[in-house]
Specification:
The complex is a heterodimer of chains A (about 170) and B (about 60). Chain A is an alpha/beta fold and about 170 residues long. Chain A is built from 8 helices and 5 strands, in the order βαβαβααβαβααα. The longest helix of chain B has 17 residues. Classes of the chains: A alpha/beta (about 170), B mainly alpha (about 60).
Chain lengths: ~170, ~60
């Protein structure tokens, strides 16, 4: 079993955990080692406890290394990041090769500023096709359901554009 | 012309706002709200949100691990 253990660490903000669960796609995180900072854990537990009630993803609750680097603190204040985002970025400082998963623009801006790889719910969904975890049709169904099943905000025009791109890429009719 | 909006705030958050105003960091509550919203919106511009999602699409469909 040990040899199948995922090697890529993904440090998670609350957004992707909640949004993927809303779309019934949380299992797409199963090929990462998912590190959940304490503050994110508490936030998700408050808003979407079902996230932690499934067994496909072995979430690892992580304590934040202290002290938080001054550069990160300054950036966090400037970008008005919340506690979960700050903790996630503090953990990223200890594993800079990891992936940071967030749907928050400000957190993403901070992560890019700090040189981290960062992606969100849409990226994880589309990656599922490339990795063979879901068919393009299944992902299209999830994308179409975002406005009424998920609290992820995406402009309808952009969502439609992404749907068209996936259809075109995989030769599916609209 | 300025617009007026109404918002319901959690007591603790409102207390923090009142403290900042009382200590003179902001002229009044309006001033603080405008500054807070301006900062919030500044890092959540639609073009930025769109750019991030487009990067996600690129990585999701064609990226390497």
């Amino acid at each position: 079993m040990e040899k199948n253990r995922p090697t890529v660490i993904a440090v998670c903000d609350a957004g992707p955990l909640i949004h993927l669960d809303e779309l019934d796609c949380l299992s797409l995180l199963a090929d990462f080692r998912i590190w959940v900072p304490e503050a994110v854990w508490n936030e998700v537990w408050r808003h979407r406890p079902t996230v932690f009630q499934q067994s496909a993803v072995p979430f690892e609750r992580r304590i934040v290394p202290k002290p938080i680097p001054p550069t990160l603190l300054a950036l966090s204040y400037a970008l008005a990041l919340d506690a979960g985002e700050i903790e996630a970025l503090a953990i990223m400082a200890s594993v800079p090769e990891a992936l940071f998963l967030t749907d928050d623009a400000a957190a993403r801006l901070a992560a890019k500023q700090l040189g981290y790889r960062v992606h969100g719910t849409i990226g994880i969904l589309l990656r599922a096709i490339r990795r063979g975890h879901m068919t393009a049709s299944e992902v299209l169904t999830r994308l179409r359901s975002i406005p009424h099943r998920s609290s992820l905000y995406i402009s309808p025009v952009l969502l439609e554009e992404i749907i068209s791109q996936v259809q075109q890429e995989y030769g599916l009719k609209s | 012309m300025n617009s007026t909006i109404q918002a319901t705030l959690p007591p603790r958050l409102y207390q923090q706002i009142r403290t900042l105003v009382a200590e003179g960091w902001f002229r009044d509550e309006d001033d603080l709200f405008i500054e807070a919203l301006r900062r919030f919106l500044d890092v959540r511009r639609p073009d930025l949100l769109e750019q991030f999602i487009r990067e996600d699409v690129e990585w999701g469909l064609y990226g390497e691990e």
